[in-house]
């Protein structure tokens, strides 16, 4: 049985349909890559799963429950975590306090002191331990992106939604990030991973979905998807991994 | 004109204690403005209503003034929740909330005139001696005196402001409020229940107006236009103290009232309120200078 199942998800902004009847299913402990050209609706789909945006139609089910109308904080507590494409740290908190907030109000609702301890563990894991006490303003792009991941991990989710967390990073940072994402799967989290860098996604994804203009274009194993002629065409007719 | 140091000390003391009262009023304004983004002028009206309710309960029902809190605090909590709930339902922008609370501010003045008359109402003659006999300072300063009501103002201010400042920093709920103020969407994504917290903060702010209102009713004759006299000092203290920082607002109110009172010893007292705005002006004018200095020192450190 799938952990997450989106059926016929539709999202309209005014008259414009950003998503038209999109389907997506994610099983426990798998990494699902979500790719597609700019504006194809990847972030919008992720927002409807996390509850940041209400859907205009369709259903979102998680762990056997219908969460379509559930507010975002309840989805976080139910075990869904998301990151933001453009990092949005809480600016007047330190790095550790940002992460602790997630652990305080997430799935296990820990106390304040316990949350800070947990934050340090998570920061260690993502390689930001040295910055625990720093103000977020002092972080580089790479560190801000990893802070987004750390905050999501600290919610202790069953499903983690990553929106271009490695975009704009250099190759060695990307490699570190891919290892980190794989390690999430290894301890049982399901991951939906949006990335422009198709080669990076396909290197760790168990399955992939391709969106185009707000519709499902293709899904399957990375090899199948990348060989799909429609997918090649959607990416401006060029070979995908060029 | 020369002023004895004793008179100056007494004047400063009175100013500080009156500042405590204004600090308790500024508490709710500061918290709602800083953390909920609502510049709530209605908070001043609530304080006045709290004072009138205390007056009525003491004069008509013969209650002890402190006991009135058992009624006014919960009732005001509900009012505070209701007002914030209205803002949520209307999805009110900050400017809309400002207009609504300002409208309520004006309406309350008329309502108070109708219900309690536009005349001055004074509770002090009805109070027991314990409330009105001034207390002498112990040695070595027996010449200084304080009103019991002023001491009550001090205790209320320290308790309410202390608990608020502590709760904002040291409790889970306080962390939630701070996360929400910085970015409500992110807070939700991290599991913070934004709506109940917003309502509770507004309710607690309104409850603090009930306490401040009780002190007001004991401290000064009531008239429907009192909020207009408070608004300058309360708003300036809120801004000087830093929005959302109750302790800052209390300190600012105390200092401002000490300056105002001292001013009145040497200069025409009717100008004293202008001093408050003068301080705000100087503070705002100093901001660019402060920024310049801090940038200059920062760049020197980098160099
Ligand atoms: N809040 C919004 N209001 C109006 N239109 C929006 C909003 N958010 C997204 N859109 C539109 O919906 C479509 C899908 O946007 P979305 O951000 O989901 O794409 P994306 O696949 O994440 O793109 P990118 O790869 O650039 O991040 C776009 O046409 C976008 O302009
Ligand atoms: Mg996007």
Write down the Rg of chain B.
Answer: 21 Å
* Most extensive chain interface and residues per partner: A-B, 29 and 19 residues
Within the CATH hierarchy, at the fold level, what is the topology of chain A? Answer: Rossmann fold
Strand order of the largest sheet of chain B: 1-2
Low-pLDDT sequence parts of chain A: none
Spatial order of strands in the largest sheet of chain A: 6-7-8-3-9-10
CATH architecture of chain A: 3-Layer(aba) Sandwich
Count of individual domains of chain B? 1
Strand content of chain B: under 5%
What is the terminal separation of chain B in angstroms?
A: 53 Å
Cα-based radius of gyration of chain A, to the nearest Å: 17 Å
* CATH class placement of chain B: Mainly Alpha
Task: Summarize the entry for a quick read.
Chain A is an alpha/beta fold and 242 residues long. Helices cover 38% and strands 24% of the residues of chain A. A six-stranded mixed sheet of chain A has the order 6-7-8-3-9-10, sandwiched between helices.
Key traits:
heterodimer; A: 242 residues; alpha/beta; six-stranded mixed sheet; 9 helices; 24% strand; B: mainly alpha; ABC transporter involved in vitamin B12 uptake, BtuC; two-stranded antiparallel ribbon; 2 strands; 77% helix; binds adenosine-5'-triphosphate
